[in-house]
Amino acid sequence: MNEIEIKAHVENREALVQRLNQIATLQASVTRDDTYYSLPVHGAKQLRIRKEKSANSEKILVTYKRKELRNEGSGFETEVNEEMECLVTDALPLETFLLDSGFTVHLKKHKEVSDWNYTAKDSKGNDIPVTLELCNVPPLGDFLEIEILSSETEPQKIQKLQDLLLEVLDLVQIPRSKIESRYYSEMLREASASSESSN
């Protein structure tokens, strides 16, 4: 399954929450602590271990993504990620194996997330489930992630889904100029480098 996703900077969190509540259904609020492991010779290939907590549950997810930024004609780059994921009951055996096998902790990321579900319509009137996630990622700030899960691989069909993501972004009144094409990992590395250089 592919994630087709855009994310955008959020300047007015309270106003956005009001708009999301008007058009979509709030599902849950969770915290996600992600640790990314990589081999020094294959730094671009990462395995993520996510520890997710909500008010009444906890779970651990192991994820591998084949990431790609694509522009199928919309003028904006969209993440199209092939995601493979599984649940585990205890992260320690895997964490220990990875470190003993030469993997290093490449990045740690904390996100506070509120999820809304929205149903969009494609050009044929079919329902398309859309997930909207309002995320706070210290020290980067607030972002809205808009995501569609799809098995589509044809560029024309992906372009239509990308266009649908942009329509949802317009609906919640976030300017397209606020779209962020960098991965969080890039932004976190840049923020860390900036902080170190200013000290």
UniProtKB/TrEMBL annotation:
Q: Where does the record place the CYTH domain?
A: 1-190
Q: Which residues lie in coiled coils?
A: none
Q: What top-level branch of life does the organism fall under? A: Bacteria
Question: Pfam families in the record, alphabetically?
Answer: CYTH
Q: Which InterPro entries match?
A: Adenylyl_cyclase_CyaB (IPR008173), CYTH-like_dom_sf (IPR033469), CYTH_domain (IPR023577)
Write down the Gene3D superfamilies for this protein, in alphabetical order.
Hypothetical Protein Pfu-838710-001
**Official protein name in the record:** Class IV adenylate cyclase
